[in-house]
Design a protein that fits this description.
Alpha-glucosidase, Oligo-1,6-glucosidase, domain 2, globular, Immunoglobulin-like, 27% helix, 8-stranded parallel beta sheet, 560 residues, GH, TIM Barrel
């Protein structure tokens, strides 16, 4: 036993005298509302569509739903350009329908998490329209990041910074001033040095918490606070590798945690306290502050999402992130797909070692160069998912992954909606391929998504992945997810994990109660460890014959 304890990774847990908060080991299902289910045939998913599909979520076995933005928006960035943070887009529904959806989910035992977008508003937001009308030097402009342009008449941008979606990060307004948009021009950045911005977001948090929302996913949580003091650095200076922690002008500044301390005070006004998870793309050692009990409570780690299907890489990611979770007194988060990345069935079917730039070139080819091995991608995806669901912490699933959906890589340029496509000069196709509406049925004008066409076209091969087809197949990906989530709920206990010895290319760890997860990352079969197989990502247990096939995960209980 002493040798096994040397490999133990034990995150801190709440005091034994208090029940664990629901989110520590929750399975959270991400809904991208515009592409989930359309109730009225206008091509856009909506809140009644979500409410109608709650039975699917119940049968899947998730603990919570996270809703991507459903706020009023011109869709310059898929809804992340928010006109009003305290309302529902009329194309998606009404506040009354939001309340009905929350009540239905809660009645089914499912918590509700909503996206909050605090780095920027849309350029249609009331305060931004006021800022443009008021002119330079006005109090209205102080709520956003405005700066005088360079040149005699302010005709040049204040700096040469580039926006995340491509192109300049500054937009002129015609009076010598420019506003900062870290992302698209339709997304002006808030000035978080302004007290009215702070207070308005506290009001927004209470608005949704009072409507029964259980938690918040915080978009680009590491941006918010910015240092706009003169002189502004050049883009090259901003990108320097030797910048000290917290010294970047708008990424991951230490002052941002003052914002989240105030948010935590609001969360703790409620019983039970509301929770939050940070989307913070920061250095690994900086993530813990976002996830601290004094801050948001959890932070996404995207390390598995960015890893090849490789034993050493997966184990290293788990060890490091459980150590970080222990340091911050929280639980880790695990994710393989979301609304911003190529679906992991396709990623795992592509050659190992492809980085984001290579995948962008792959999308530009329509998904043909190189041609993915989707059979292998699906096999690896199911194995990786079973591995992830065996880990302590929260698991985040993205809509459609339970159907084994690959990326729709061959969308025609004429239908693309992601601003990345235009802003990059047509060199980055963007994220639409993972946002294509779901296939609920093999038949119908939009495979059951709605009574009419969908806002992004679905390929004909979606029929084979439809939920009604998979529902009847005990070996389908949908059935595998249901089985894995049921066993996860049945076996869920403390947050400890102990790595055990395993052959090269295999990762094996034990959880409290003595059950074990074993993943074979190689292509060759290895001997199956002793125990009773209760879950297999590949062939059923009675067909394994004492061997663990390649690219397969099993869960084992101690032998009777």
């Amino acid at each position: 036993m002493s040798d096994l304890l040397d490999h133990a990774t034990t995150p801190s847990s709440p005091p034994a005298t208090t029940p664990d908060p629901w989110w520590r080991q929750a399975v959270v299902y991400q809904v991208y509302p515009r592409s989930f289910a359309d109730s009225n045939g206008d091509g856009t998913g909506d809140l009644p569509g979500i409410t109608a599909r709650v039975p699917h979520l119940v049968s899947l076995g998730v603990d919570a739903v996270w809703l991507s933005p459903f706020y009023p928006s011109a869709l310059a960035d898929g809804g992340y350009d928010v006109d009003d943070h305290r309302d529902v887009d009329p194309a998606i529904g009404t506040l009354e329908q939001f309340d009905e959806m929350v009540a239905t989910l809660h009645a089914a035992g499912i918590k509700v998490v909503v996206d909050i977008v605090p780095n920027h508003s849309s350029n249609r937001h009331r305060w931004f329209r006021d800022a443009l009308a008021a002119g330079p030097g006005s109090p209205e402009r102080e709520r956003y990041v405005f700066a005088r342009g360079r040149g005699e008449h302010g005709e040049l941008p204040p700096s040469d910074w580039t926006a995340v979606f491509g192109g300049p990060a500054w937009e002129p307004v015609g009076d010598g001033e420019w506003y900062l948009h870290t992302f698209a021009p339709e997304q002006p950045d808030w000035n978080w040095d302004h007290p009215e911005v702070h207070e308005d977001f506290l009001t927004t948090l209470r608005f949704w918490a009072d409507r029964g929302v259980d938690g918040f996913r915080v978009d680009v949580a590491h941006a918010l606070v910015k240092d706009m003091s003169s002189p502004l650095p050049t883009a090259a200076e901003l990108a320097a590798d030797d910048l000290p922690d917290g010294a970047h002008r708008f990424w991951d500044r230490d002052e941002v945690h003052e914002v989240y301390r105030a948010w935590r005070a609001v969360f703790d006004e409620y019983d039970p306290p509301r929770t939050a998870v940070a989307e913070a793309w920061v250095a690994t050692h900086r993530r813990a502050r976002y996830a601290s009990p004094e801050g948001l409570g959890q932070a996404f780690n995207f390390d598995l999402l960015r890893s090849d299907f490789d034993a050493a890489s997966f184990r290293r990611v788990v060890e490091e992130n459980l150590r970080l979770a222990a340091e911050s007194g929280t639980s880790s988060t695990w994710v393989l797909s979301n609304h911003d990345v190529v679906r992991h069935v396709s990623r795992y079917g592509l050659p190992d070692g492809m980085d984001e730039a290579a995948r962008a070139r792959w999308l530009l080819s329509g998904g043909t160069d190189p041609a993915p091995d989707l059979e292998r991608g699906a096999r690896r995806a199911r194995a990786a998912t079973a591995f992830l669901l065996a880990l302590p912490g929260s698991a985040y699933l993205y809509q459609g992954e339970e159907l084994g959906l690959p990326e729709v890589a061959d969308l025609d340029a004429a239908v693309l909606q992601d601003p990345t496509w235009l802003r990059s000069g047509h060199v980055d196709k963007g994220r639409d391929g993972c946002r294509v509406p779901l296939p609920w049925t093999a038949e119908g004008p939009s495979h059951g998504f709605g009574p009419g066409p969908s806002h992004l076209p679905q390929p004909s091969w979606f029929a084979a992945h439809a939920a009604d087809v998979q529902d009847r197949d005990p070996r389908s990906t949908l059935s595998a997810y249901r089985e894995a989530l049921a066993w996860r709920r049945r076996l869920r206990t403390g947050e400890e994990l102990v790595f055990e010895d395993a052959p090269e290319g295999v990762v094996r760890f034990r959880r409290p109660g003595g059950w074990t997860c074993v993943t074979n990352f190689t292509t060759r079969a290895v001997p199956l460890p002793p125990g009773r197989v209760v879950l297999s990502s590949g062939a059923p247990a009675d067909e394994l014959g004492g061997e663990l096939p390649g690219e397969t995960t099993v869960w084992l209980l101690p032998a009777d």
